[in-house]
Fold each of these.
Amino acid sequence: MRIRIFAVLLFLLTAIVPLLKAQASAAQGTQQTPAAQEQKTTTNDAGAAYSLPPEKLAKAIAYSRIRVILDFLGSGWGILQLVLLLALGAVARMRDAAVGLSANRWVQGFAFALLLLLTTTLLGLPLDLYAHHAAVEYGQSVQGWASWALDEAKSFLLVFVFGGLLVMLLFWVIRKSPNRWWFWFWIPAMLIVLLSVFIAPVLIDPLFNKFEPLAKSNPALVDRLEQVVTRGGVQIAPERMYLMKASEKVTTLNAYVTGYGASKRVVVWDNTIAKATPDEISFIFGHELGHYVLNHIPATLAFLGLLLLVEFYLGYRGVRWLIARYGKRWGVSSQNDWSALAVLLLVLAVLSFFSEPIINGYSRMHEHEADVYGQEAIHGIVADPQATAQQAFQLLGEISLVDPNPNPFVEFWTFSHPSVASRAAFAARYNPWTPGQRPKFFNK
Ligand SMILES: [Zn+2]
């Protein structure tokens, strides 16, 4: 959910969507890595670090297939629908309707954004409906349709309001600097991204899920986690540890770090606490702590910021090229024309699709580092860090119906985390406390 909200919020900056995907689902079992590809198990044999009983295996393979198809279909359809809307003159008609409403630019901009957003949302609805249906069917979600629809409506409103403001800003910058807008718009866009990441845990996330201090219901667990924090040599006050009531909507396990500065926090889902042992939760938490200590959020923001700049530049070039070539046919007169927004979104959607493997590869690198950190962080706190970490991955994979043998191309292109099988295998063999070896992030 977190992913979608951001995605929606910044619908104009489609390029940034995969980034937020990457950092939102910290310990999620459903997405995975190739750093450990050498370790990939090719069968579901009982000796593998992560394996499923036959019945679950069949379900996991079927569900993974659905998710992969939805993923690629979603990207393809997102691009195709913009092409169709432009080619069929629908975008030009939306522009005419918006301009006909009023001479006021604010009215025009928001009306056009609303029409375009409404159309693309409706066109994407069948896939969204099917995705939720499948999640319920495969026991991943317990959210009813009314609650689901309400979440969709909230997301829509957020995107409309914030997206509309971004559109106004974009066209203002385009008018002021027709040849350099890609750079001048990038600066406020980055500030908005930074602000969104900062306010999300406080203002956005609570719109979709309930949060409370972890200490309220699980004081013993907080004490336990403070031991891990102390070993990491950092300070995370218990007030920055939150419990999210995920069980109202999903059955899967997760924990994540989010925000920065005053809003920085660690969030553990209630499902995780209900289904994992204190040792396993300590490892999952150690992994999250790794993201925190190793500054993965600022590093990711910087990486994505640079990528976004490149994408804006290519977006600028692409829009000019497309308008010169197809502008007459599509009824898009210039980049100042409201309808040029659809052309820009089209270019960004294509760039976003092709930057997926870059962003996911970068994310998998961080995830692997966090796995190493997590395992080292619980040394001396749990009896057997190797077994604990491996069991945690087994549990994550089993509950999220993770296929033990994902297709390598799918993994390369879409996995923000290493595959669960490779993470479990790494955990099982990683023991830096043997003679001649030393931990990567700790002195002992
Ligand atoms: Zn992570």
Note: The chain is about 65% helix and 5% strand.
Amino acid sequence: MTSIGIVGAGIAGLHLSLLLTQRGVSVTLYAERTPEDQLAGKLSSVVTRFGPTREREQALGVNYWDEPDFGAFCFYVNVLGEYPLAFRGDLSQPAQVVDMRLYHAKLLEDLLDRGVDVVYGSLIADDLTILADSHDLVVVASGRGSLTEIFPKVEEHSPFTEPQRHLFGGLFNGVSYPEPLGVTFAIMPGHGEMSTIPIRSFKGRQSALFCEAAPGGDFEIFATMRYEDDPKAFETLLLEQIKQHAPPIYERINPEEFGLTRPQDLIQGAVTPVVRRGYAQLPSGKWVLALGDAHALNDPCIAQGANAASHAAEVVADAIVDHAIYDEAFCQAVEQQVWVNLGAATAWTNANMMPPPEFTGQLFVAATQSQAVANAVADNFADPQRGWRVMSSADEMSAFLAELGWQPEPAPEHEPEPAVA
Ligand SMILES: Cc1cc2nc3c(=O)[nH]c(=O)nc-3n(C[C@H](O)[C@H](O)[C@H](O)COP(=O)(O)OP(=O)(O)OC[C@H]3O[C@@H](n4cnc5c(N)ncnc54)[C@H](O)[C@@H]3O)c2cc1C
């Protein structure tokens, strides 16, 4: 029987383990942390999982948090500043946000219940050679950890050498949900983007606030300011900045109740995006695959990393089942298949880190005028191949808008110049 070793119990490793187990392949999962460790950890992300990921979870029987009246049913977009606009795009398949500490712990427990062999410990690169001798194939899904350094960086797809945004966010009291329930997104020119997100966490239904702070903007400080030194000062300053720069979000905050739920519910940091080769050869000659963030680490600005990791897990699981030999040719073919979706998610995300080309402004304008366009803009987040295609050229965008029945309004005719006496 084929035996696969999977390193890392984030969404990539967990989904691959579940998919292979469901297909009757023997899996050993090498996890750094037990379910208890996961539950006790710090918040490290706020992951919106879109329709295709949720369908995969249903097929795997791990859709534990499905509640018809709780999820993200739409996106509320507010562009603020000099050229303000606002629209709401409804998702054709609701998205969902669950605290990943609960999510990882539950899926790991589930794998244990399904009889999967789970070995706890933090591996080093040399361990992979030992693992490769005991499995037909090893897949490294260790996220941002140092193990990924065995996979060479792909310069062509890694345009940045430093983070493009400063990140902070957390679970907050005093932030009410919009109705219908959805993710609100405020674009604050010069200061970054701020979202509020309905999330299922330790106390049931809660609210997350997340900011992609622009370097030099007024929110940058919150990515490094030490919350524990003076929680009140942190929260007061944050509230002031939200009031000044993101009024649509401030409107739904009750200042009396506003505050972080617990110190461990705060995220602060930054991501330097990097794409690595999707496979590597060990000194022993065996080949290993990279999966999830270990393959491509993207800034979270457009919510693609975990969704792309889940998608890639399915591609890898199918390929493992369809083949018997896991050599270089196999790894190359898998990388190519994974890259169709992951490459689009990466290119689209990286494009969002740079000043937008002029034609892209048309998309949001069209979304304010046409509900079909607004809904399609929301749905694009669940389909990075379409999302990136639309944003990749003016022609593609025009074709997308025309398909949705939207035409630019004709420019107003000029009044004839008054005759000069
Ligand atoms: C603030 C924030 C918001 C985000 N929002 C979204 C979103 O809305 N939608 C979205 O799709 N994505 C989002 N992302 C990205 C998403 O969180 C990641 O892409 C996703 O979690 C990657 O999953 P992974 O399994 O590859 O890695 P991870 O989740 O990092 O898991 C890696 C696992 O490997 C383990 N590990 C590490 N090193 C070792 C070792 N040496 N030995 C053994 N185990 C090891 C770790 O303990 C961990 O359990 C967000 C990220 C951030 C930071």
Note: The pocket of flavin-adenine dinucleotide is lined by residues 7-13, 30, 32-33, 45-48, 122-123, 141-145, 147, 167, 169, 267, 292-294, 300, 303-307, 309 (CB under 6 Å).
